[in-house]
Amino acid sequence: MTPAARIAAAIDVLDQVFAGNPAEKSLINWARRSRFAGSGDRAAVRDHVFDALRNRKSYTTLGGAENGRGAMIGALRANNLDPAQIFNGEGYAPSSLTPEEQAASGNLSDLSELVRLDCPEWLAPMLRNSLGEMFESVCGALKFRAPVFLRVNLRKTSREGALETLLKDGITTKPHALSETALEVVENPRKILNSSAFRDGLVELQDAGSQHIMDQIPVAAGQRVLDYCAGGGGKTLAMAAREKAVFFAHDVDPSRMADLPTRAKRAGVRVKILSSDDASAAAPFDVVLCDVPCSGSGAWRRSPDAKWNLTKDRLEDLIWVQDEILQKAATYVGQDGTLAFATCSLLNEENRDQINKFLENNSDWHLASETKLTPIEGCDGFYLAILKRKISKKTI
Ligand SMILES: C[S@@+](CC[C@H](N)C(=O)[O-])C[C@H]1O[C@@H](n2cnc3c(N)ncnc32)[C@H](O)[C@@H]1O
């Protein structure tokens, strides 16, 4: 496909996404309809679509319309390219610019702050309050693609060993400072899933920030550890690779854990999957992690449509669910145990405010430590609070 045909394809996919369809599904549907497209074409169209979604407001403003054409015209203008060179109707190129599209010209510096930063207006006060003087730089960072990170499975190899094995498969990586298990992929990320290092369980895909917060959770040999919102189990596996403890995984939606047994086998670790009734019966645990559902605002570079789909009502629902989970999970923690609360959110409302509320209602707990990461550190944004029970006077 020519560069112009790839842009025309991205316009089709973006129109699907703007009509309310998920980005991944829209890309898959386009690829099925477009058997002529090779892997390079699919990758290029995907890159256009995700870039346009990260920059949706600024691009569609520069392009003059809230649709796929508007987004791609704006993308070219934001990069100081003349859209008339591509939008000329030749071959498979998009049709020529309309007078309205021509009239909507401009560049990024002409736009208002929130449009330029691609920050949804209703969220700006919350993000400003949560990020303080980092507001502009974090919003700016969210406009760019996230790096690909791998977690080295120290049960099977060293970081250097993984780096060399990956190199044999043509994948270049470099160590990342956020965790002793983190490798940042420099070249050929699309080869990872077929590489021997991945197939043999030497590495897993996991953001460096996620690895960093998992490093902060105190797990000792032989302890009983419950990942209460396990999802795909990425965090269970990170803890299990570090310490020979006894690991349990639970999720309100068991189908989310469907791949966990295969992933655990590949990693050479054991994880017992628990239903909700079994989790309650198996309590108490030494460590309970609640990696709660959240806005995902720290990971908007990877799921940019989530930035525009989040609503006030949805955020309120999430905050309510987070409260419920934290209260429930606390009852599963043994007397001297640890309760870890994690989100991939940048918002105080989902982070420290939740912990303050919990501590107000549960005076026997205290905050032992807190970790906050934003995309400025190169990783996704994360929050982790480690909670411990206060030592009662009777036991001293
Ligand atoms: C942020 S995701 C977890 C991601 C996972 N820890 C990982 O590293 O891949 C949140 C998970 O919480 C689960 N969840 C939602 N409500 C829950 C509840 N009330 N109890 C337990 N899990 C819940 C969701 O099904 C979802 O899989």
UniProtKB/TrEMBL annotation:
Enzyme Commission code(s) on record = 2.1.1.-
Binding-site residues, S-adenosyl-L-methionine = 251, 291
UniProt cross-references to SUPFAM superfamilies, sorted A to Z: S-adenosyl-L-methionine-dependent methyltransferases
Task: Please report a single Pfam family linked to this protein.
Answer: RsmF-B_ferredox
Q: Which UniProt keywords apply?
A: Methyltransferase, RNA-binding, S-adenosyl-L-methionine, Transferase
Q: Catalytic residues per the record?
A: 344 (nucleophile)
Q: Does the keyword S-adenosyl-L-methionine apply?
A: yes
- The UniProt record lists the SAM-dependent MTase RsmB/NOP-type domain at 138-396
Q: Please give the name of this protein.
A: RsmB/NOP family class I SAM-dependent RNA methyltransferase
